[in-house]
UniProtKB/TrEMBL annotation:
Positions with biased composition (Low complexity): 7-16
Protein name: Nitrile hydratase accessory protein
NCBIfam families (UniProt xref): nitrile_acc
Region span, Disordered: 1-25
SUPFAM superfamilies per the UniProt record, alphabetical: Electron transport accessory proteins
InterPro entries: CN_hydtase_beta-like_N, CN_hydtase_beta_C, Elect_transpt_acc-like_dom_sf, Nitrile_Hydratase_acc_put
Domain Nitrile hydratase beta subunit-like N-terminal: 16-109
Length: 129
């Protein structure tokens, strides 16, 4: 599905300060690297094309900028995750309800996990009910 702001969105994505150094992307947190790798793997498996990805990411960045979002790149990977979520929903591989339920499960798991321990879904007290 093409969005009317595809060209603008793609241009904004190209102009966004992606966190990087001379060797390529840099990640402030492990989840950022995992999200990056997930998109690369899905694209390599043919789940979506590079053009579809650029359009989805560009649209998310355009929306964030239109809403006064950060232009310094500090929220780049949040936009990355939003684009992935919306693209997977658009392709019928995920649902809004499913994504929301999983996010809630992770939040409960985080709350139930002792400080300093890894957060895993198994820590969600409502999991398996």
């Amino acid at each position: 599905m093409n969005r009317p702001d595809t060209d603008l969105a793609t241009a904004l994505a190209a102009d966004t300060p992606i966190p990087r150094d001379a060797d390529g992307p840099v990640f402030a947190e492990p989840w950022q690297a995992q999200a990056f790798a997930l998109v690369v793997a899905l694209q390599n498996k043919g789940v979506f094309t590079a053009e579809e990805w650029a359009q989805a990411l560009g649209a998310e960045i355009a929306e964030a900028v239109a809403e006064g979002g950060c232009r310094d790149g500090s929220d780049y990977y949040e936009r990355w995750c939003e684009a992935l979520e919306h693209l997977l929903i658009e392709k019928g591989l995920a649902s809004h309800d499913g994504v929301d339920a999983l996010a809630a499960s992770w939040a409960r798991a985080a709350e139930a996990t002792p400080h300093g321990k890894p957060i895993v879904l198994e820590n969600d007290p409502e999991r398996g009910r």
